[in-house]
Amino acid sequence: MLRVALTGGIATGKSYVADRLANHGIPLIDADVVAREVVAPGTDGATAIRARFGDGVFAPGGHLDRKALGDIVFADATARRDLEAIVHPAVRTRVDRWFGDLAKSGTPVAMAVIPLLFETGRDHDFDIVAVTTCEAGEQERRLMVRDHSTREAARARIAAQWPAERKLARAHYVIRTDGAFAETDRLVDELYRVLMADAFTA
């Protein structure tokens, strides 16, 4: 089975690209979704976060207050590393299990959306890595609109990840998302054809 990773900086269009590939029929798992599941109320992840960051990062009912936690970890590199040490191993276990189950079923191609793929050293676990990208100004604008944040807050979140140039240098395939939707769709559809061709000629 061809193992594919989709990554890219925050607010560079990963969800749009992933949805289009899923509509083509490629099985897909999103590490961000899994990350929310492994810190849900009652999980070991939630317990570990409470022990490290306190009750202030939880909303009434026991759900994680992601904004409160984000305000802490994007302003403190040590806190961010501590959070990653709690969440990333659990996410990796779930994602690897998902790929293993699909491989047994004979699925030719499967994809994981992993925003911090390079930062966590996971790119070597995949046959093909696709990276979404857009102009820095557009990335900031999207993030400010999405999170209702200031430019400074958006820049802090972007700076917490690898710069785009470093990711693009290690990509097998690049999808720009700052043009017309039709152009992005064309690139995604081309990637789909490449993946299917590779899967059946490997």
Topology of helices and strands:
Elements: E1 2-8, H1 14-23, E2 28-30, H2 31-37, H3 44-53, H4 66-73, H5 77-105, E3 109-113, E4 128-133, H6 136-147, H7 151-159, H8 164-168, E5 173-176, H9 181-201
Parallel strand pairs: 1-3, 1-4, 2-3, 4-5
Helix pairs in contact: 3-5, 6-7
Architecture (CATH level 2) name of the largest domain = 3-Layer(aba) Sandwich
> What's the helix count?
9
Rounded mean pLDDT is: 95
Q: What is the first-to-last residue Cα distance?
A: 9 Å
Fraction of residues in helices? 40-55%
Largest beta-sheet characterization: 5 strands, parallel
Order of helices and strands: EHEHHHHEEHHHEH
Indicate the overall shape: globular
List the domain count as a whole number. Answer: 2
Q: Class of the largest domain, according to the CATH hierarchy?
A: Alpha Beta
- Given the helix and strand composition, which structural class is it? alpha/beta
| Strand neighbour order, sheet with most strands | 2-3-1-4-5
Radius of gyration (CA) equals 17 Å
CATH topology of the largest domain: Rossmann fold
